[in-house]
Amino acid sequence: MFTRDGCRCRIRIRARFGLNKPSVLGVTKNVSSKGLALDAPMYFDTDQQLALLLDWHSGAISEVGRVRWFAGQRFTNSGRPEFGLQLIEPNQGYLKMLEEVVYLSYVRERNGGVRYVNPVRLTCCNTRQLIDQYDRNIHQGGMFVPTRHPLHEGAQVGLHLIMLDTMELLELGGRVVSTVDAETAQRLDVQPGMQVRIESFPAQDSERLREHVERLRQGDFDVTSQDETELAP
What we know:
With 233 residues, this protein is an alpha+beta fold. Helices cover 24% and strands 39% of the residues. The strands form 2 sheets. The protein has a 6-stranded antiparallel barrel. It has a 5-stranded mixed beta sheet with strand order 9-11-12-13-10. The protein is elongated. It starts with a strand and ends with a helix.
């Protein structure tokens, strides 16, 4: 089940974890850009470092994290002990998994409906990347999409902006206005890709993104300090 809930997605993934090696079998309750909440068949002290292995369909994902909280079975809705694990440094495998989870939860929320077929994914893994993407591209009404196989000029293209800090996906539509193919890019020592002019971005989504970016600039949205938001049971 994929369900977005605040800045995390509720999903059950088979997992193994332990102090020295991932040997204890469990399952995730939710995932986010900073960590996970998991069922816990045994007790862990706060701040203990654990090795983690997630059984994702495209391959196992190894991580290392620290226990942020532990809740006994009397204090959880499920009636099972649970704990929150903050990842020390999420790796690319974990971030790619989150990207897919956000997409799947987005599709589920819309009963399978997306506006664009085979859209280009633009994933912002952290605050800095999102602000940079907004200032350099979205706010200016266009963006450069790196790709070795650009579409032809005039082609319509769908863009999925995936924000891992809030576990959200925004759909934009655009049109290719110029391209740089792989051969030209190599000759000019630049990145191949296509320049896309944004032509469709729902006003409600656009305003929500603008407000979110402004909160990030002001330091009012710090995901690293939101224990209950990020790793809530």
